[in-house]
Design goal:
Chain lengths: 272, 194
């Protein structure tokens, strides 16, 4: 009886000991040298893996930054603070990142844009865009929420069949811009700007065609370009747009007038 | 001899499949079956660990436990062997395939507690297989596990685009799919009687 106890203890003990020795040796042999800087940089980064820097995630970006000693275009959502911290940690010169926000060039929610088809397929914008489903306006927001799904900070919601962006949450990573099959999302520079004007339409057709499919589409009347002095609005064919190169020099009061006078109520203003 | 091995192979892969007949290893079956790629990686890792652990557990069982008459320690010994093996496999994967390591994530250490692997060692002992049969049994059980995992991952990838009733989405439809798969695999029972 005593013998059994001793044998079990010895047997199991020795087995465990052998395995632990193997593990220790392998641990030493297979050790991977990870630069501690990479970990530090990863900690500084916001960690939302938005991909605005062009790398798959924050840890990949940190790895590239430390290895190549280059900030590339900097961390967009982190802004100045994060970039300064990283550059001082690595002894690099800091880069300026310009804050950007996504805007949508459509305001045709379900009650404003006409829908005459019934779509019963896969519910993604990508799929609807391949068929003749969705809104009658072939330039408008489909509203199946592809952009909502890719947004890393949940700034996008689909309200009444229209993509709505919360500009307080938007970090300007541009993932939605790449996803939208109709290319109606756009990134605008919001550096030192308090508000953004958007001509919320992307339909280049003339008044008759636009009116037939949507009540808030730009009809190309060009009123917004004429009614005020030095108008930041420009017209291109039958579609007006806001000239974002003038985003810092225009008069907000004048633009407000243009917004009020727009016959189709296409111009929207967002505070950022 | 070869015929026996073939029977063991078919039996472990299809008839007595670990996941769908014994219901062992359900955790990775539901957890890693989201994408075919990660399912393949997990399947390969489990197959590898199963083959290795069946060989080493057989050695420990017959050369240590039976010889010294301490068979009652089989559970403890097997767990010890499997845990160490998984650690070693993890180190190797981390070193030589970081991408696979990141893909498997938490599930790689979870192989340690994957009941399919402990179950395999215990079945192997109760079935009293000789050494080569044990290794083949371990390998084919791993293959069976991978097969089911990959089938499940394929179905789940398609399910993402299916129009599923609201209340069945997510875990619900996954469990229903698993149940139907298990029913299908029941069709293999009786193919080999052992």
């Amino acid at each position: 009886m005593n013998n059994t106890i001793i044998i079990s203890i010895l047997g199991l003990g020795i087995t465990g000991f052998i395995f632990s020795i193997i593990l220790v040796i392998l641990d030493k042999k297979l050790k991977i040298d990870i630069d501690p800087l990479i970990e530090k940089v990863t900690e500084i980064l916001p960690g939302i893996n938005c991909g605005a820097c062009g790398f798959p995630g924050c840890s990949n970006y940190a790895k590239e930054v430390v290895e190549k000693k280059d900030l590339f275009n900097g961390c967009l959502p982190g802004g100045k603070e994060v970039n300064d911290q990283i550059s001082s940690l690595l002894g690099l010169s800091t880069v300026e990142t310009l804050p950007k926000k996504a805007i949508i060039l459509c305001s045709g929610s379900k009650d404003k844009a006409k829908i005459s088809t019934v779509y019963k397929g896969i519910h993604t914008c990508q799929a609807v865009n391949l068929t003749s489903g969705g809104p009658d306006c072939k330039y408008g927001c489909i509203g199946e929420g592809d952009c909502e799904k890719v947004c890393p900070v949940k700034a996008i919601s689909i309200v009444n069949g229209l993509c709505v962006i919360d500009h307080n949450l938007c970090i300007g990573c541009g993932k939605c811009v790449k996803t939208c099959p109709r290319k109606i999302l756009k990134l605008v520079d919001t550096n030192q700007v308090s508000c953004v004007f958007v001509v919320s339409c992307n339909n280049p057709s003339d008044m008759k065609e636009t009116k037939a499919v949507c009540s808030v589409g730009c009809i190309g009347c060009s009123l917004c370009t004429k009614i005020i002095k030095d108008s930041p609005f420009v017209i291109n064919g039958k579609l007006a747009s806001f000239d974002y190169l003038k985003a810092k020099s225009f008069s907000e009061k004048d633009a407000d007038i243009a917004k009020e006078k727009c016959p189709a109520k296409t111009i929207n203003k967002f505070n950022v | 001899m070869l015929k026996d091995l073939f029977f063991i192979f078919i039996s472990a892969v299809l008839v007595n499949n670990f996941v769908l007949t014994y219901f062992l290893g359900i955790c990775p079956f539901l957890g890693v079956s989201g994408h075919i790629e990660s399912a393949l990686g997990m399947g390969m890792a489990v197959t590898f660990v199963m083959t290795l652990s069946s060989a080493i557990c057989w050695l420990f069982y017959n050369l240590l436990l039976v010889k010294f008459n301490i068979v009652f320690l089989e559970y403890v010994t097997f767990i010890l062997v499997i845990a160490s093996l998984v650690q070693i496999v993890e180190m190797f994967i981390k070193k030589f395939s970081p991408a696979l390591y990141e893909m498997l994530g938490i599930y790689l250490p979870l192989i340690t507690t994957n009941c399919a692997i402990l179950g395999l060692s215990l079945f192997m002992v109760t079935k009293k297989y000789p050494f080569i049969e044990s290794v083949v049994y371990g390998f084919s059980s791993g293959l069976g596990f991978s097969l089911v995992l990959i089938i499940m991952a394929g179905i789940r990838e398609e399910l993402k685009f299916a129009d599923i009733p609201k209340h069945f989405r997510g875990a619900g439809i996954t469990l229903i799919t698993a149940g139907i798969l298990a029913l299908i695999f029941m069709g293999f029972s009786g193919l080999i009687s052992s």
